Amino acid sequence: MEIKINEQGETVTVSFIGRFDTSSYMDVTKEIEPLLEKADKTIILDCKELAYISSSGLRTFLSLRKASQAKKGKVIVKDMNDTIRSVFMMTGFLNLFDIE
Amino acid sequence: MKNDTNILKRLTRSLRVRMSLIIVVVTALLLEGVGLVQYLYLKKESSDPAALNIFVILLIVGFLLAILLVVRALRNMKRLGALSASNQKMENELHIASEIQMSMLPKLFPPYPERSDVDMYASMIPAKEVGGDLYDFYVRDNKFFFCIGDVSGKGVPASLVMAVTRSLFRTVSMHEKSPQRIVTVMNESMSDMNESDMFVTFFAAVLDLCSGHLRYCNAGHNVPFLITGESTRSLDAVPNIPLGVEQDYQYVEQETDIACGEGIFLYTDGLTEAENTNLDLFGEKRLFSHLKGGLSARKQVESVISAVEGFTGGASRSDDLTMLYIRYMNESPLEGSERHLILHNDIQQIPQLAGFVEEITESIHLDQQTVMSLNLALEEAVSNVILYAYPKGSSGIVDIEAIVRKDKVDFIITDNGVPFDPTNAPDVDITLGVEERQIGGLGIYLVRTIMDSVSYKREEGKNILSMTKNI
Fold first, then answer.
1. Summary mean pLDDT of chain B
2. Three-class SS state of B107
3. Which of A53, B103, B149, B402 is the most exposed place for a label (fewest CB within 10 A)?
4. Does A66 touch chain B (CB under 8 A)?
5. Tens digit of pLDDT for each residue in B184-220?
6. Which residues of A touch B357 (CB under 8 A)?
7. In angstroms, what separates the C-alpha of A66 from chain B's closest C-alpha?
């Protein structure tokens, strides 16, 4: 699992590459943590190259979403494949995010 | 055969040389004789010293020529002696090459006397000292890997490519279980630096001995026959193209299911193109008529061999004759096809689950979505154990057992950790908004959503979580 963070003005794009499973949770959390402070911006979660997600990945997504809600920012989930979309569907996450 | 003809050619050539020498020598001697007679005759009739001189010169030249011819003849004969010695050496070496080549092919039958789920027999009768046909097979992870191939051309060059092909198959198939991948990697390697433009028709297949599921990939080889109890038919196999022709070729893999007692018969064109003395071919029809369900693999192959031998009579074989027959003999496929994965309580081992799920679902035609959700449910259940079952700092294991049945897959997850019943956890409410949504609890929720049944029991100090997915 690899993530790339790209900040441009009021938009932060986080690209997830690979499998977001429980074994990568700790590392990703560390990288994402500073973003919680910037949750007033628009955060784009780019899932184009995200192959798989489990509940630990969903937790990361939800933490960002909660921080953004508190700071009146915005979280957009972009380019999910069918696999990721079905997990979002099962867990009701489709209703929690702006999906593009 | 080619080398035999070479030797023959050399021999006839040497005979021809010897004969021509003898003729030349005899002619020279005859001419000498004629000259001598004429000289003697002329000596009587004329005493012209110029004429006498010419005859003397002729005589001397004739003698010189004769000596030259004899010297040349002797030298040639010496060379011939050396040549036949080197021919003998070459023949010996070819014989050794042939032995090495045959020793590369598994020849011990039955190859797996302890296995009751597969019955197989193979035969290769080379036409020449060294041939270009090959076959191979072995069992790995309850899968029967096998292949057959025919190298273009004949003799030593074909045998070299045959040896390379056979080694490549072994090496590549040790790391790949998809015939399409095996064939593709082999083709990439064989097309690279193929300056002699040799190619190989090849057929690779993997038979899952637990389920009877057969995956195969044809690379321009003769289509094998599928022999069932009632009928024999050609396997549905797209030709693709032979190995070594086009490096980037996209090979197509196919699959089918084989029932207990059914088998797949593979052969090379040396069989169907075997000729009798009238130059008629044995042909697919004749082969077809000799393939019958119910015969043991050895009996079936031997019956085809004797049919071909009866057909060809005394005609010499022009090509290698190779066949193999694999019968699937597992009477209760799928049942008992259980597999284990044992992980330590280290979260970094979680990625191993993906490969495990892929392996167990391979034989049962599941769509990618279902495979992913099984992976997900398993990860949630197993990561729970890894993270919470054992006290921090202590080591423990989690045993994951998967049993694939006809209509469902069972997973049984066992650990020796503290008692914990995940089925007791309260359900998460997925309709809640962002602020009210709980961050935890999603894992168990996913397990319940994905699986058709989930149950927990505590037995002999173990947590046993059973999950079933209907398929």
1. 85
2. coil
3. B103
4. yes
5. 999 999 998 777 788 999 999 999 888 888 999 999 9
6. none
7. 6
Domain layout of chain B by residue ranges: 2-99, 105-328, 337-470
Residue linked to tokens 């072994």: B170
How far is CA A28 from its chain centroid? 10
Q: How far is B409 from chain A (nearest CA, A)?
A: 20
Nearest residue of B to residue A92, measured between CA atoms: B430
Instruction: Give the type of residue at B17.
Output: V
Q: What is d(CA A52, CA A64) in angstroms, rounded to the nearest whole number?
A: 19
The token pair that represents B227 in the structure block: 């022999």
Q: How many residues make up chain B in this entry?
A: 471
Query: How many Å is the Cα radius of gyration of chain A?
Result: 12
State the average pLDDT over residues B114-132: 84
Angstroms from B361 CA to nearest CA on chain A: 17
Pairwise CA distance, residues B283 & B201, whole Å: 18
Beta bridge partners of B208: B143
Query: If residue B120 lies in a helix (H) or strand (E), which one and from where to where?
Result: strand B118-125
Out of 3.40.190.10, 3.30.565.10, 2.60.120.10, 3.40.50.360, the CATH code matching B337-470 is 3.30.565.10
Can you name the CATH fold of B105-328?
Answer: Phosphatase 2c; domain 1 (3.60.40)
CATH 3.30.750.24 fits A2-99, yes or no: yes
Q: Report the predicted TM-score, pTM, of the whole model to 2 decimal places.
A: 0.56
